[in-house]
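note to self: dont lose this again. the chain is below, predicted strucutre after it. 285 aa total, dont forget to put it in the shared folder this time
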Amino acid sequence: MNDPYINILERIHGAYYQLSAAERKVADYILSQHSQVQFMSITQLADECDVAEATVSRFCRNLGLKGFNAFKLEMARHTATTNAGHLRPQQDDTESLSGRCLTFARLSQDAITQTVDMVNTEQLESAVELLEKAGKVLCMGAGGSVILAAEFAHLFSTVTDKFFAIADSHIQTSLIATLGTEDVVVLFSYSGATFNGISLLELAQKRKIPTILVTRFPKSPAAQKADVVLCCGSTETPFQFGSVPAAVAQLVLMDFLYQEYFRRNREKCEENIQSIAMALAEKHI
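---
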């Protein structure tokens, strides 16, 4: 679908009676809850409609789309052009700049609150235990998630030397293929539904390498492959490509892991911090 102004809801109405009974359940839900569908994973939508994920995929193809991600883009485009006339987050142009800044700040505050509400302490403790025991910790992601993986490795580099951020997808695969069972892979994937992320987790699973996934969607395909799943808050449209609130939510989750790791290994962490501080002092004026 190349027309940026196509009315996806009209497309659903037009195809409605050519759909199967199960696909009509998906159509009915979307037509009644269309403003929220763009924020959902395929697993969430399937659960809400009480159908299989394969049914959702067939529904999307029957609309002339390549798959669910293409459908979400059309839903987001429809919402954006209908409500705001553009593809940026809707703003109140009558509000002052300071007022808009407060609005944007609240979005990040909400993301933090959602993350706190979503934290599973058992999973958090399991993640810290894996990080403690690990010989090496490889931090990975794709797109904007690579930046977050690098930030995670950088944060822990202040207290230990075993965290490494890997950006290139081929090197990610190569390194997992040579890791041992005493190592750990940490994958950042907001959607939990990228081909590369899922393939990395499958390879790690095959080699019995422990994995930790940071994602927004606890029932995503990647979440089914990870040993530990940590959920972050914030909701973004398919056109945001890594919003600031989503990044803030993941940074807060990183800090939860870091602080607990530090608490459990305080003496060694403080020793390393002192050594690093002395070494870095020579680089400052």
